[in-house]
## 1
Amino acid sequence: MQGKLSRFNIVSLVFGFAFLYLPIVLLVIYSFNASRLVTVWGGFSTRWYVSLFSNQQLIDAAWVTFRIAVISATVATVLGTMAALALTRYTRFRGRFLFSGMVFAPLVMPEVITGLSLLLLFVAIGLDRGMFTVTLAHVTFSMCFVAVVVQSRLLSFDRSLEEAAMDLGATPTRTFFHVTLPVIMPAIVSGWMLAFTLSLDDLVIASFTSGPGATTLPMRIYSQVRLGVTPEINAVCTLLIAFVTVGVLTAAIVNKRRDLQRQRDEHAALRG
Amino acid sequence: MAQTLDQTAAAQPPREGEGLASFIRSRMVILVPYLWLLVFFLIPFAIVFKISLSQSAISMPPYAPTFDVSAGFSGLLDNLRELSFDNYLWLLDDALYFNAYLSSVWIAAVSTFFALLIGYPMAYAMARAPSSLRMVLLMLVILPFWTSFLIRVYAWIGILKPEGLLNQFLIWVGIIDTPLQIMNTHTAIYIGIVYSYLPFMVLPLYASLEKMDFSLIEAAQDLGCPPISAFWKITFPLSLPGALAGCLLVFIPAVGEFVIPDLLGGSQTLMIGKTLWNEFFANRDWPVASAVAIVLLLILVVPMMFFQRAQARAQEQER
């Protein structure tokens, strides 16, 4: 039965994906519009991309955003992986309920609340707002996403591999770096990328926790969008979409290849 | 925290010859993220709660200082006496806040319903697709989630505006003569939320439908059960955990949504995320903003606990 799609199935897929992709496709198309009027097609042109590169404010904001995203994604990946290990490997420790609550709650917590509460913390401890505080804020909410991604991989992980390594005399540290880490690496990589794009994308939390001189790209885009739709913003958005899409697809292909390679290796090892 | 350590020691005895180093290392795995979340997630809520009880003041930061350690114990008592529920009474007094909470919950609920309506058939079709196609479809659902939220909301402005692409298209086809006013209405917000959160609905639904044994349906049909009632009696109940998780993943963040009502809803729309933002950035009344946040949190606590329970149960199943 599985494997055959009825007409209704096909219609709902086509409709659903059209709904998901049409707006993005239109946005990309209209970023190449020669006309300043955003919804009137005036011929193909790349003039908005050219004018982007002379917009120093946008370039500065992009650079700030990029640095925050790289740093916060990296820290969040380390912390999130640790949290995932803690949740899967240690099923009983006091405060585990609170801990798992703190890992899952940020996933659905409205951003305005997270932003406000972090800002009030920074004010309370007298931390000057700027790139640093935005980075701390981004680490906090994106580490939870990393934890969930890595955790799902750890749950399907065959613990007997680790036991075998330890029986053969490997220390726990060695076992972790040579057995566990390579297996959960795809999840860690996608966790990092998720954290990176979440940081790249965040408007609300950054607006609360940012200070003078640390305007991020979403904040810049937002303030321009409020004034109206412009082809220049369409061009920025298209570049961002292209950047993220290429990154995600590359990672997916690399992961797939590595999985296949490992399967082949395991197969070969079994036949020995 | 010290007790946390003892417990894990029992769960994972250090190996011989490893001793203290490995003991400490295994504790670190729990302790570091635990402390981070305590400091940057839990304590901030305590601060929000505290400030929601203090008076606003014209200064920087714009609230009357509470806990002044230098004043000693008596100073602390004075401070405690100054705390008041005035901000909460203020929220009760002004119908604006009540209406904003109400309409946020309503808008989120309607959007969740439509997300389920669109997401369910998608997830169902994905689960029944040939397995070679399934990975591609899954990727296609996840991909928009990676592209910027702000951009995806922004893209709808160009479509929904009075002179936007949708109206141009409808007029060109001849369905309407005058442009529809969709921008700055609730409809625009529904579209924005459903669009932005659809992947959150589809993914958990797909996960639970994919695990389902479709031969159950065949069996039911062989026994003479019509397809529609087979769906309601077998497929739907089995997919309920996924549907619940999906609905919560859409509903909870949608209640506090700021970007979508702000960009698509115009100035007329009342949603609590926007109210909080304005209270904070425009009125600079931090104590009232904090009180708004605390009440919002109270509204969401029950669905959030459902969410955590669902997560924990899903984990147990996978174990």
## 2
Amino acid sequence: MTLFEEVPVTTAEEIPVRRVEMRVNGETRAANIEPRLLLAHLIRNGMQLTGTHTGCDTTNCGACTVLFDGQPVKSCTMFAVQADGHEITTVEGLATASELHPIQEGFKDEHGLQCGFCTPGMMLSAKALLDENPNPTEDEVRWALSGNLCRCTGYQNIVKAVLWAAEKMRGDEPASEDAADGGGEA
Amino acid sequence: MALDEIKIGGLGASRRRVEDNRFIRGKGNYVDDIVLPGMLHMEILRSPLAHARITSIDVSGAWAIPGVRLVLTGEMMAARNLAWMPTLSYDTQAVLATDKVRFQGQEVACVVADDPYTAKDGCEAIVVEYEPLPPIVNPYQAMAADAPLIRDDKVNQTDNKIFDWEVGDKEGTDRAFAQADVVSEIDMHYPRSHPSPIETCGSVADFDRSTSKLTVYMTSQAPHIIRAAVALVAEIPEHMIRIIAPDLGGGFGNKVPVYPGYVMSILASILTERPVKWIEDKSGNLISTGFGRDVYLKGQIAMRNDGKILGVRMHTDSDHGAFFSDAQPSKFKIGLMHSAFACYDIPAAHLTATGVYTNKAPGGVAYRCSFRVTEAMYFQERMICAAADDLGMDQAEFRRVNLVRDDDFPKRTPFGFLTDSGQYEKCLDIGLEAIGYADFKQEQQAARKRGRLLGIGISTMTEPLGAGNSREYDILGIKMFDSAELRVHMTGKAILRTGAKTQGQGHETTWAQIVAHELGIPADDILVEEGDTDTAPFGMGTYASRSTPVAGAAVAMVSRKIRAKARKIAAHLLEVSEEDIEWELGRFYVRGAQDRGVSIQECAMAAYSNVPDGMEPGLENNAYYDPPNLTWPFACYIAKVEVDPETGVWDVLRVVAVDDCGVRINPMIVEGQIMGGLTEAYAMANMQFLTFDEDGNCIGSNYMDYLLPTAWETPGFELHEVVTPCPHHPIGAKGIGECATVGGPAAFVNAVMDALKHTGVRNIDMPLLPDRVHDALTTGNDISGMPPVKTEA
Amino acid sequence: MFPSRFRYEAPSSLGEAVALLASHDDSKVLAGGQSLIPMMKLRFASPALLVDINNIPGLDQHGAQPDGSYRIGALVRHADLEKSTTLGEHQPTIAAAAPLIADPIVRTRGTFVGSVCHADPQGDWASCLVALDGSIVAHGPTGRRTIPVDDFVTGPFQTVLAPDEIAVEAVIGAASGSRKGGYLKLERRVGDFATVGVAVALEMSGSTVTKAGIGLTGVGSATINAREAADAIVGSSLGDDEIAVAAEAAAAASSPRSDHRGSADYKRHVVATFVGRLLAQHQPAEAEVA
């Protein structure tokens, strides 16, 4: 509960605000929103889950990709009201408190990111793929990621990262070039 | 008992990246993630027309919308002397248009509101009336005698020309051409391209009237340059300006210049006394911010029948858009175009260059390129390809005849640069071997008999990376050096700050590796910070592949200063004279008694607890590094393609890259840079370009029309390495970030030309769109010039 | 990136939905939203009321019906078709096109019927439906009507749907013989609009074509039904000559514009090439002809 919420002093027209409730990364969240609010903006600004990025206006780049009832969607191309009653997973929901998701580990181990801006969307598309197909070929990975644009990596290491994660998720220990870790828990 | 350098994350370790720990968790901190209390949001209204006089602007509709806090127009900016701002190339650029608009997408007004939706509503409610003027969309229209004057705001400007410039030896070149057996000529266009990082530009300006301090979070590759520019434009004292470049979602040169949006957000914050956030939309980014290329070339190579090149002539006509705002060293009007042919032994060369204004977006930036080196090397390798064909000589053999030999260094390039190291022929040989060049001709012939068109394209080049030295390289008079500051804490952990600014290159990881190499402090014990002008030492920022050559060198140099002081402390702790101290990675020891030593960490503790008499306590220092020369990496890129003769669609079958960037600090990161660069090269060769219709409408104003390749189209890359250390860099490294973007495009284009060689086609300008390839294939004609946009009714 | 203000309703029945649409003269149906929402973000579209039909049950099925027809409900996503294991045997043209629609993420939301209703001349699905001689079923205040796709699309981004009608499904009639067909799309990268798209749908009895349809994407101001081209192969066994005639007729039926995706002449040439390639896939093996 907030004790104080500032509201506009004057309104030219009645703003049709709606209450929505959804599961986000396993937690129930509710908000009062204008219907025109894009899902990406609710996630980023309303819920402060800023790992979901917006990169273009035209539904091309996929930086805003989240899982909507387990399926990848571009959250800039859904209205937040449409998520009412649904389940959303963002990049913040990939890791548990103690453990990274193998896809996250794979992206770090295989140098599957540089600037990091496309990475959350890329990882969620990868998760949707691996949830459906635990043993994809390189071509299947490339195909599944073709709705996410990356300007830095040239994709080759992203593909390697996803294959690395697939291997790990199947219970194998993926090969990783021996080298210093770069710190952190990862 | 020296440490294992790879284990501590030193030089040569493929150390996993430190920054990834936050990025993979979605915990990066980009400008759009910054939220300040009371923050307002700004949106920009842009011109729909390329060239028009503004007859009226009515903003009353915007003011009437609840939640709108401020509306700015050019008139209001002019009242504060802010309607125009200086560019990085000694020109001026409109912040908000006052008199007329000069390109489609130019900033006309902005609205600041409680949220961005309302700000956008405000922009929509503004009514602007325009009186259209004839637009100019290429240099040849601009130079026509009756061309309308674009820059009528400039007092002495009577035509659309910005500069005529020349470099090289005209007489010597004329003599070379007079002696030639064969002269090969080719004209071409390197189309306009946009760096297009996925994150657009943006800023959060926060002016605090109570302290007079301005803090701006900004998507900037060069925050210190921005601080200087803001001090000059906004007349705020420099110490009261703090520019913070947080995580950047890619830059590629796009985030070097000062953009009107930054200036407006600052003014808006001053006027509203609230923080103001501006996040550019993708269309705004593509149609108004710094582009790369847009240069036309007339090229000539004079040669002997045996393949020896005697001389080169180049003339470029470059399209700079409505304002000359190129971000480049001020001495060189067409950047480092004259670095062309640096890897070849050519006695004489002459370059003339003309730059013009057009009704297109301003800002020729180094798009993953060291100041137009991308054009230089593309023109070079396309000219070389055509010349070899004109001579009837094999592509590899022709290069071999003319490449500078290993024992020729240091070597003056045809235009006067000094190259210092390389093993060019070795790189070429590795590439040819890897692609199977020896057997390819047969494979090509056999395929052709079955109606399949295969081609191989080679591109070899060395490029100048790492400006300065500061004698020759400056931006707006500010010398191009860089800096690093290292503080070693008493427990042997350290913080390093530099004047560079990473945008994905991994400085947080690699700078620590340089310190680890120099001091033996494990890389994990070193925190790297960049991008905050209040804390980072002055630097010129990260672009033009200059970070490792300049800032990286500064990191090595400051580490050595720290080591020199630690050596004195070690002598004190070991109770011997400094001359008797030896160094091995991570520790000092007494000469002749290797087991008597102290670690660098023990020296650090002593620096705070037990310094010798007369020594300043503490263990910190800084270094400003002014490189003696540029670094000269070499690359050989070879692409193998297949062209579908029925549709003109071409597929990349293989790409082999051989890079010599000297000593590799982190091989994993170097390879990442090369693959990213190759992808942009492939993109430009295949699909990625900005073009304009005759009305000046930008075709490519969003990602539906401005095409970037996905994982599906992007080919796989086979990487090889050669290491020739840079003789003057403290750790022997050379720049690498852009090599593949610079050298790559010609490999793809040359490969398609090879596949089409039997038709007599000598040139198709990029991008090699299927229709252009198909037209060339069926008509046997070259396809030159700006990609056709024949707007039909 | 920031749409204009609108009212939003998400009814749970078609009756309510139609009533809502009738209540406002500037309303739009929201299904997948993958064309509408991008246009609203750019403010090319600013409807006053959005009627979201995603909560209406019964619209998310596709499949062969007992009468041999094939029905695709208004909430069937591109990905549902792409991932279907049974679609290919019934509807090879649609199965071939499904993976080529937009990109994998857009395909999880966007719908077949919505795409046809959007009537973008560069839309791939309309060409498929044209080739298959299919129809759209519209639900309005007075009940349902079935509209042949040729009559449905009246121009770029225009259909005969009344403001208070909702397209609830697409229907493809029963085939008289075995269905063959395919879809080819020239796109420079995944997610690009078609420079040229060609849908071919055949019904074959043995090696003889008994019915044919050819739809063309991106080469006119609306989806093009290349009837003469299709007629040229009906009754034939797809001999080289008939294929060549059909290819030329399809090229002649197209009316492309020159733009940054290619010149008009080139696009016509690709139409002919693709028609030829698609038909050649279904040429009987030489032994069969003999």
